[in-house]
Each structure stands twice: as C-alpha cells, then as structure tokens.
Amino acid sequence: MEELERQLDDARRVYEVEGHQVVDVSGYAYRWRGSKPLEVGDSVLLPENYVSRMKHGPGPAVGVVTKLGTTYHGPLTDIVRRAPETDG
After folding, report:
1. Residue-wise over 51-68: b if at least 16 C-beta within 10 A, else e?
2. Where does the pLDDT of residue 87 fall: very low under 50, low under 70, confident under 90, or very high at 90 and above?
3. What three-state secondary structure class fits 66?
4. For 3-29, how does the pLDDT look when each residue is reduced to its tens digit (9 = 90+)?
C-alpha cells in the first residue's frame, strides 16, 4: 500500500507553477518567487493569516520547508522571503 501511495504522490507532485518553485511547509503548499531555489530545511517567512495571527501575533510567521513540490492543485500563497539566519 505504501508503494502505491508513493507512486500516486510522484505522479501528482508538481515542483513549479507558472515558472516559480513550489514547496511544502509543514503540510501546506507555498510558491517561492525568489531567485535562489529553496531546499528542505530552509527557514522562510510566511504571510500572516488568521491562524498565524492567533498563534504567533501579527506579522509574518517563520516556517521550515519540509518537502520540495506539492500534490496540492489549487491557489497558492507566496512566501514572503527567506527567514533571517540565527545563531544557535
């Protein structure tokens, strides 16, 4: 069953939409319009939405790229920018 799910995922997964990279951040698909492609593990700033405002307060929220591409086929929100690197 897992092999069939993987094959279906591979068949439906897209990595670009309208010439821009698409990535998964914690289960949600986002579009990246930056010049340097993102990689799994990169930190990004996501635009504020209703849920992020309740959880993190106003403004962009930090997320981490968990997968490249997506199987979601619908409207995408743009990533604001890469998150600043922190020491730690």
Report:
1. ebeeeeeeebbebebebe
2. low
3. strand
4. 766 766 777 889 999 999 999 999 999
Q: Could you give the CA distance from residue 36 to residue 51 in angstroms, rounded to a whole number?
A: 29
pTM tops 0.70, yes or no: yes
3-state secondary structure at position 55: helix
Residue with tokens 């698909």: 29
Phi, psi of 46 (to 5 degrees): -105, 145
Contacts of 45 (CB under 8 A, 6+ apart): 60, 61, 62, 63, 79, 80, 81, 82, 83
Decide: 60 and 29 in contact? Cβ < 8 Å.
no
